[in-house]
Design goal:
This protein is α/β, with parallel strands linked by helices. Helices cover about 35% and strands about 20% of the residues. The strands form five sheets. It has an eight-stranded parallel beta sheet. Strand 21 and strand 22 form a beta hairpin. Helix 7 runs parallel beside helix 9, helix 11 crosses helix 14 and helix 25 packs antiparallel against helix 27.
């Protein structure tokens, strides 16, 4: 989206780091899609199936339905059928006085005693005018097939109608999950259960529960009761709660993977058991967020005896084959200042804290193996001495996933799928485990090269960058680096000292135009209406004595065997600024886009517009399953409005979004667990679908040669936002929470006025002067500044309208 560009430096970094996606697609040969464009346009399914063919007919599910179970059947499958009836609002007990129809369910194998990673989850569905046939090898396929049938059902005049079709479906990856942080802010059992329903709806099969942290320990331990008694502030899952969650998940084919973060992020262990720590206590639960210093002492045998007993208890409680040890963000301060630990490191010839953590992980892996568990941890656990029989969850960058599988270990991707970054579904949808953003695939020519050190002007910031060209003028390619992000481009032209090249990004093609004179270069880097100037001097080349070509790390594409080591991925939601009131809206519906990337064939997950079309249906469907991403939003708005009409507030907040990445933290002097998260920003959505639809309407209006398409709807929306400011200012008076957003309301009204003026100019074929355009663009940037953790999400549409007047 263009509005990200307007904030300057952050987006430029994002553009550079994602450009390599374009080049990696060259390793993917285009094939005939398994779903025709005509059929796809009729589908509202999410995720898309592996293959489907519609034949144009319909099937009506009458009250006189006969269900035929073929081969395996048990209580769990019967409960799944009951849920299916509930989801489509079908009552099998109603009077049967209509024509007969049948549902045939054929399952060839029983459940495994414990759900494994690589289960056969495939299924087929055949629907004709009188029957539905659902067939799968295992019960997991039946579960997925029933979820598909629930989404396929449409209601017409009270009748449940299906399209006639043939479908073959199976997942792309076996590990498709959600990591839910229940520690920084407590998430009650009911939150977990309803989100398990949502995961099931989109065929995700893992819920990863982050159960220990600086701020809390969230599960009952009977062998070490002070863990939950002193480390939770009374907010934890009893073991009976866990068994209920496990049974609920098992019924839906979902694995529960527990995480106990070790050796860092471990204050909640030390409140009750300070003897485990590297520094003496006493300890209290941390209230502040961030990366803190408490860390387990990995040198004492008593620590491993404790962990052996504790992990043995947890291994018995959680049946999944995997147990997550965390392992991220270990601060070595307490190790460095502990003389006993330093002496231990010298004795064991451990050269640094990475080696000490690996010593700990090696001991921990033996304990997990003893209790029948496989180790999974964040990418900091990567170490050549730990062995390949681990699973690494990549979060700091996708490169670690490539390093993991190229070294022979299994990997899980979370980088790019952090939900607490509040990125749009489109951004998540462009992440692919097998495509490394920013990968350099060009072959450097070390005999013919030139390098310039540049300064890129972004708003008021001067950003150092480096441009390197390889080859002769008839075969130029190169790299563009910006703050450790390096992107390659395969084609450049240099004629009459005019340098031109283009590289792709998530936001469109970025054009670079430069003028070279002697040893200097200057030019612009452009994206749509926006351009950034750069200038620099030559710093090296084959014609400059004493300089050497830069070392370029080329990333090899994954082999087919290495791709098989990618188990899949997880969306991740960390809960510094998330509570049980808004957690659903921070997960859904965006996570469905990630679910589709992990389930559907790669070839089917490139059409962002179609993804959003189906995501709209999916969001409504999830609301019918009693998810609270919509109802919770409305409830929070009503609470903020107090006794007044909520309409002016909703009109404003519908057009806003929560700021991206970690900009939200700038709202607070000392964000902590005591900070009340009850402001307007806590109701605002990570992605405004009102704004998204408005932007799409605007694009269609501009591209329409008559400029009549959507004209009235756009004008009505802009006028509504203009008029709403007066209503909101009146409503906010005396309400200190709402008063904080008054500036956003005023800015939204002014942006809308600019947009309405631009619309009229377009319709009347009036063009802005250069001076008018420059002044208007400057004013848009001023109005687009985020306030109180929120930004105005319709700005890209206003930018487009003004741009069309130039």
């Amino acid at each position: 989206m263009l509005r990200k560009i307007l904030v300057g430096l952050v987006i430029i970094l994002a553009l550079i780091s994602t450009a390599g996606v374009f080049y990696y697609f060259k390793f993917i040969r285009p094939n005939q899609p398994p779903i025709s464009a005509e059929d796809r346009a009729k589908l509202t399914l999410m995720p898309l199936p592996a293959k489907i063919k519609l034949d144009g007919g319909t099937f009506e599910l009458t009250n006189n339905l006969t269900v035929n179970w073929i081969s395996f059947k048990d209580k769990r499958l019967e409960r799944a059928l009951t849920r299916f009836y509930k989801h489509i609002r079908y009552n099998p007990e109603q009077k049967k006085d209509e024509s007969e129809c049948s549902l045939s369910i054929e399952c060839n194998m029983p459940w495994d005693s414990i759900q494994q990673v690589r289960e056969d989850e495939s299924y087929t569905i055949d629907i004709n005018s009188s029957s539905i046939k659902l067939k799968a090898e295992t019960p997991y396929g039946i579960l997925h097939g029933l979820e598909t049938l629930a989404q396929l059902a449409k209601t017409d005049n009270g009748k449940i109608i299906y399209p006639t079709l043939n479908m073959l479906d199976k997942p792309r990856y076996p590990w498709r999950g959600l990591m839910l942080d229940v520690c920084r802010h407590w998430m009650p059992k009911e939150v977990v259960l309803r989100n398990l329903d949502a995961l099931s709806a989109v065929k995700m099969n893992v819920m990863h529960l982050h159960l220990s942290e600086y701020q809390g320990f969230r599960v009952e331990s009977k062998v070490f009761p002070k863990l939950h008694e002193l480390g939770s502030n009374g907010k934890y899952y009893t073991q009976d709660d866990i068994r209920e969650i496990l049974a609920y998940a098992r019924d839906r084919g979902i694995r529960i993977v527990p995480e106990f973060d070790l050796p860092g992020h471990s204050t909640s262990f030390f409140v009750g058991y300070p003897e485990l720590a590297s520094s003496p206590g006493p300890y209290t639960l941390d209230k502040k967020f961030g990366v803190l210093t408490p860390v387990i002492d990995p040198t004492r045998e008593e620590v491993y005896q404790f962990l052996d007993t504790f992990l043995g208890e947890m291994a018995s409680l959680f049946p999944d084959p995997y147990l997550h040890i965390g392992g991220d963000e270990v601060v070595p301060h307490d190790w460095d200042t502990n003389e006993s630990i330093q002496a231990f490191m010298k004795e064991k010839k451990l050269k640094d804290h990475h080696d000490l953590q690996n010593y700990f992980n090696t001991r921990l892996k033996k304990i997990l193996t003893k209790h029948g568990k496989k180790m999974v941890g964040w990418d900091e656990i990567l170490h050549p001495d730990l062995g390949t029989d681990i699973t690494v969850q990549s979060w700091r960058g996708q490169k670690s996933l490539f390093v993991t599988v190229q070294a022979g270990s299994n990997g899980i991707l979370s980088s790019g799928w952090y939900l607490d970054h509040k990125l749009p579904a489109s951004k998540h949808y462009q992440v692919d485990p097998e495509i490394l953003p920013g990968a350099i695939t060009i072959t450097p020519d070390t005999l013919n090269w030139q390098q310039w050190n540049l300064i890129l002007q972004v708003s008021e910031n001067k950003i150092p960058t480096t441009l390197t060209l390889y080859g002769k003028p008839d075969n130029l390619r190169g790299t563009f680096s910006l703050m450790e992000n390096i992107t390659g481009f395969e084609t450049a032209t240099l004629q009459n000292n005019k340098l031109k090249f283009t590289f792709a990004s998530d936001y469109g093609s970025i054009d670079v135009d430069g003028d070279i004179k002697n040893d200097s270069i200057k030019g612009t880097m452009s994206l749509g209406l926006l351009s950034f100037k750069f200038a620099g001097i030559k710093a090296g080349g084959n014609d400059i004595e004493g300089t050497k070509p830069p070392v370029v790390e080329q990333i090899k594409p994954l082999t087919e065997d290495q791709k098989q080591l990618i188990l899949g991925g997880e969306a991740a939601l960390w809960a510094e600024v998330v509570t049980e009131k808004n957690v659903d809206s921070r997960i859904w519906p965006r996570t469905a886009a990630i679910a589709e990337k992990l389930w559907s064939p790669q070839l089917l997950t490139k059409d962002i517009d179609d993804m959003y079309r189906r995501l709209d249906y999916l969001s409504t469907y999830l609301n019918s399953l009693e998810l609270k991403h919509i109802s919770g939003y409305n409830d929070m708005l009503q609470q903020l409005a107090e006794s007044k009409s909520v309409k002016p507030l909703k009109t404003l907040v519908d057009a806003l979004e929560e700021v991206k990445y970690y900009d939200r933290m700038n709202m607070y002097k000392d964000l902590s667990t005591d900070t009340p998260l009850d402001e307007v920003v806590d109701a605002a959505q990570p992605e405004s679908y009102t704004a998204l639809k408005f932007i799409k309407m605007t694009e269609a209006f501009i591209s329409d040669s008559t400029h009549q398409k959507n004209k009235e709807e756009i004008q009505d929306s802009l006028q509504r936002w203009i008029d709403n400011d007066t209503l909101y200012q009146q409503m906010a008076a005396g309400n200190y929470r709402l008063e904080k957003a008054k500036g956003l309301s005023t800015n939204l009204a002014e942006l809308s006025t600019i947009g309405l003026t631009a619309m009229n100019s377009i319709v009347q074929h009036h063009k802005m002067s250069e001076e008018e355009f420059t002044a208007t663009t400057k004013r848009i940037k001023e109005l687009d500044e985020h306030k109180e953790g929120m930004l105005i999400a319709i700005t890209p549409a206003i930018v487009q309208l003004v741009g069309a007047c130039k």
